[in-house]
Amino acid sequence: MPRTPGTPEGKRPTLADVAARAGVSVALVSIVMRGAKGAGAATRERVLEAAREIGYRPDARARLLRSNRSRLLGVQFGLQQPFHTDLVEGLYAAAEPVGYQIALSAVAPSRGERHAVEALLGDRCEALILLGPQAPAARLAELAAQLPVVSVARRLRPAVPGVDVIRTDDDEGARRAVDHLVALGHRDIVHIDGGRAPGAADRRRGYRTAMNRHGLADRARVLPGGLTEEDGAAAARTLLGDDPRPTAVVAFNDRCATGVLDAFLRARVPVPDEISVVGFDDSHLARLAHIDLTTVGQDIRRLADLAVGRAVARLEGEPTPDGESSGKETVIAPHLVTRSTTAPPRNTP
Amino acid sequence: MPRTPGTPEGKRPTLADVAARAGVSVALVSIVMRGAKGAGAATRERVLEAAREIGYRPDARARLLRSNRSRLLGVQFGLQQPFHTDLVEGLYAAAEPVGYQIALSAVAPSRGERHAVEALLGDRCEALILLGPQAPAARLAELAAQLPVVSVARRLRPAVPGVDVIRTDDDEGARRAVDHLVALGHRDIVHIDGGRAPGAADRRRGYRTAMNRHGLADRARVLPGGLTEEDGAAAARTLLGDDPRPTAVVAFNDRCATGVLDAFLRARVPVPDEISVVGFDDSHLARLAHIDLTTVGQDIRRLADLAVGRAVARLEGEPTPDGESSGKETVIAPHLVTRSTTAPPRNTP
DNA sequence: GGACGTCACTAGAACGTTCTAGAGCCCGAG
DNA sequence: CTCGGGCTCTAGAACGTTCTAGTGACGTCC
Fold first, then answer.
1. What's the rounded Cα separation, in Å, for the pair B191 and B199?
2. Cα distance between residue B204 and residue B169, in whole Å
3. What is the residue-wise DSSP string for A191-236?
4. Average pLDDT score, chain B
5. Minimal Cα distance from B89: which residue of A?
6. Of these four, A155, A208, B188, B311, which has the most CB atoms within 10 Å of its CB?
7. Is the pLDDT of residue A209 over 50?
8. Who's near B128: CB < 8 A, 6+ residues apart?
9. H-helix or E-strand containing B280?
10. Which residue blocks in chain A are alpha helix, DSSP H?
């Protein structure tokens, strides 16, 4: 087995090993490895060479232990949620340029939020970025007392002190979906909601507001849904039984919309000819050529950038302007992505 | 802001703080916190009480730094791959009872495997569990020289010294799919493959073997596919153009199969009446009521258990039996999950 | 020619744990 | 009574880093 020669078997090389080999002090090696100033060019090269030779790799933990900064952002996300995984990718990208690392902790059926957060805290993360957290406000407040907490995609009403919120304007998103459909000529527009999921209440409200605004209050109808394909399909089956069927559906999210699409397809109800469908999230799913779903896009890249930005701002000074730290909410405007699942209703008056 | 009183603002409590409060030595607190023996019942209670009062939480990093064990298993996975996320959940579950933690590092378009692994190594993981790694064998060998490496779902031919492999018998899986279809009466069975994806070659081979075995060698046909819905849909569209259409399709995985299903649905080709479809993985997707896909199930729970088991075995002794450590391969048998996308062909002779 | 800067480098103390020795105590066996 | 052995507990040294406070050596400025 290829093992670097000169290194005691099984023990990974440390600063001291590099220092010995390069004939300098440990402190100087530390300086070189960090790229800090205070080392001559020639020595620097010599140290780097020595490090390369024995395969030195800095020990992140020891490093963090000493410098009381871990430069670690803890991210809690749902393993099965496409929107979350997209977001995680954005977070990685956003954290690197500002010199932070991401520590991931997944929430899954067998692993609750509590567990996930405990792991992150044990890892000495400096701040927490929680994607769509379900924890009660009190718990979030408790966490915020210990370290900066950013909630992404979960609105907090009333605001929780110390918890920043980054979210898409769900309300506005649902309104845009309705506006789009109305502009196409639809009047019987139904909403399949997301139940108690984060953002669901806002989207419901946005839908109602828009319907009212267009004088369609009496036609507004909200069907209980959820965030999986299954929920969407179930709701769609309900719609299939209706006699004057609605001509358009605004679904809670893309997964839900996909379920709707599928149910219609199976029932031989052509989309968008007989019924239009709008999703929410603009996830990978929606973009697949064969689905090509009209949807409300959340600016994932921006959400991620802002989440990291807020956390970092809290960490690096930002001298808690008023009072203590009130918990700032940043709302991003969504945008409608028009694809092929929406069209004017068949019998436009 | 609620802050634990008695603690210096902004600094998290340490063993020393607990010790001071409980009036004992630091070492004793350490003993109590670890649940090690060597502390009296009364003192133990008193220490725990003190810890609770000031909100003490052990510092994982310092802990690991000292005891040269990190008890950390580094897991590399693809953010967008349902099969991987399912597996990750299983890994969490498998690691906990044996006293190990999981450190996650995601691979995404913007974040290559190299990057992901570097992060894990920096975190001082004791072993690496790589889900469907694409890295060249040489790279894996290099890693294996430093620490135990387990490759899940990627076969290594020839075996890489020091790298254990845990995988499903892809070959057998594809054979079972074909057997099932043949038993139903199908003869024109096409395979939509996974290109260069891990496992694809084996599934292709299994398909061919089974076709031969049933005397259908001349009807065997492999269409280039891939691992996304899009790939499946594209291949399905090709099939739609055929005049004597095949009566059954074995897709590389569930996502691919879903794409196939969708394309057929849109073309008004009823499944399974006119054509049967089999997937691979038995992912969440396949189980959705409205998809209800016949598929080849991989025993995810078992794969996860074994992966953790192999890593731990390497770590805890297992005195490298023969020679050095040859790299052990464990192959799990897949099972066919019959759902509603397969049926006898319409015109059974 | 002394005071002062700057530059390259170093010694040694942190950081928050765990671990190794060993100290003090009480109890029962001889 | 003494000895050994078990308990409970403690002091202090690790672990691999970074940071603070230097030490010399060499210029530069009046």
1. 14
2. 12
3. EE--TTSTTHHHHHHHHHHHHHHTT-GGG-EEE---SSHHHHHHHH
4. 89
5. A108
6. B311
7. yes
8. B73, B74, B75, B76, B117, B120, B143, B147, B148, B149, B150, B311
9. strand B276-281
10. 15-22, 26-34, 41-54, 60-66, 82-95, 113-122, 137-144, 170-184, 200-213, 229-240, 254-266, 284-287, 300-315
Fold classification of B72-168+300-328 is Rossmann fold (3.40.50)
pLDDT-derived band at B288 (thresholds 50, 70, 90) equals confident
Per-residue pLDDT tens over the stretch A142-199: 999 888 999 999 999 888 988 999 999 999 999 999 999 999 999 999 999 999 988 9
Tell me the pLDDT band of A317, cut-offs 50, 70 and 90. Answer: low
Select from B63, B58, B61, B64 the least CA-distant residue to B18: B58
Q: What average pLDDT score do residues B60-86 get?
A: 88
Which residues of chain B lie closer than 8 angstroms to A65, CB-CB? 59, 61-62, 65
Helix (H) and strand (E) counts in chain B: 13, 12
pLDDT number for residue A325? 60
What are the residue ranges spanned by the domains of chain B? 15-58, 72-168+300-328, 170-298
Domain pair A72-168+300-332 / A170-298, same fold = yes
Report the SS3 class of residue B16.
helix
β-bridge pairing A248-251 and A189-192: parallel
Instruction: Quickly give A28 CA vs D27 C1' distance in Å.
Output: 24
Nearest residue of chain B to residue A123 (CA atoms): B60
A125 vs B181 pLDDT, higher one: B181
Q: Under CATH, to which class is A72-168+300-332 assigned?
A: alpha beta
Number of DSSP helices (H) and strands (E) in chain A, helices first: 13, 12
B49 touching chain A per CB within 8 A? no
CA B206 – CA B172 distance, rounded (Å): 6
Nearest nucleotide by C1' from B39 CA? D8
- Mark the nucleotides of strand D covered by protein, meaning any atom under 7 Å from a CB: 7-12, 14-21
Residue B24 φ/ψ, nearest 5 degrees? -135, 180
Residue with the two structure tokens 């596919």: B225
Fold of A15-58: 434 Repressor (Amino-terminal Domain) (1.10.260)
B146 CA: distance to closest CA in chain A (Å): 8
Q: Which of the listed CATH numbers 2.60.110.10, 3.40.50.300, 3.40.50.2300, 1.20.1280.260 matches domain A170-298?
A: 3.40.50.2300
